[in-house]
Write a structure and sequence with these properties.
Length: 222
């Protein structure tokens, strides 16, 4: 699906919701991400990120509503390795920071006053991708590397990320609301890189890598 097709689909969906909705309210939210990368990756740990943006809730019935959101979200994951003996010391850390413009469309069912169960698809567009690394390697004082920096890896990450969200929310009488959500990425964000320099044996894909995150939000509905 192209970006134009995605945009057209969203416009049609929002127009349909606006016609069907009994009431429309708007809100702003921000919060914490505990993100990681799953799949063909080893020893990947959670990366602390954040998200911020706005939402619109289309009330269809007293119990059911649809809530599209537009969020900037920092996701990714981190890995580290440490080894030390009498002559060697290896201490490395790498953080993969992926910034997305996400469009979740959440179906909400109110099980009690203010308390809702939520689920729905999400489409994300990659804005930036960086690898932050820190290497400290000393082997017998003959092989020494101490280096840290940042590398742009956007060319190695798929631009479109599709996933599904599950969560719950609670809204107070004063319009302050809280949300907890799990995002399961469905897209392999690792590009299958093929080098023109090796025509006889094209390079193989490193493997499948997918986004995954827990999100905790606080917001206000106008």
């Amino acid at each position: 699906m192209t970006k134009n097709q995605i945009t057209s689909l969203v416009v049609v969906l929002l127009t349909t919701l606006n016609v069907a909705a009994q009431k429309v309210t708007f809100g702003a939210k921000a919060g914490l991400n505990l993100a990681t990368l799953t799949g063909d990756v080893e020893d990947m740990k959670s990366l602390t990120g954040y998200h911020v943006g706005g939402s619109a809730e289309f009330k269809i019935t007293e119990k059911f509503s649809v809530q599209p959101e537009l969020l900037y979200s920092l996701e990714g994951g981190k890995s580290s390795f440490f080894y030390e003996d009498e002559i060697s010391r290896i201490d490395t850390e790498e953080k993969m920071k992926l910034g997305y413009l996400n469009l979740p469309i959440m179906a909400k069912y109110y099980v009690a006053d203010g308390l809702s169960l939520e689920a729905g698809p999400q489409i994300g567009y990659l804005l930036h991708a960086n690898s932050h690394y820190d290497y400290d390697v000393n082997i017998g004082n003959e092989f020494v590397i101490k280096e840290s920096g940042k590398e742009d890896i956007k060319d190695f990450v798929e631009k479109i990320n599709v996933g599904i969200n599950f969560g719950l929310g609670y809204q107070l009488k004063n319009n302050l609301f809280f949300q907890a959500r799990y995002h399961l990425g469905l897209t392999n964000i690792n590009k299958d890189l093929q080098s023109d320099d090796f025509e006889e044996e094209p390079s193989e894909s490193v493997g499948k890598i997918k986004n995954s995150s827990f999100q905790f939000s606080i917001g206000y509905r106008f």
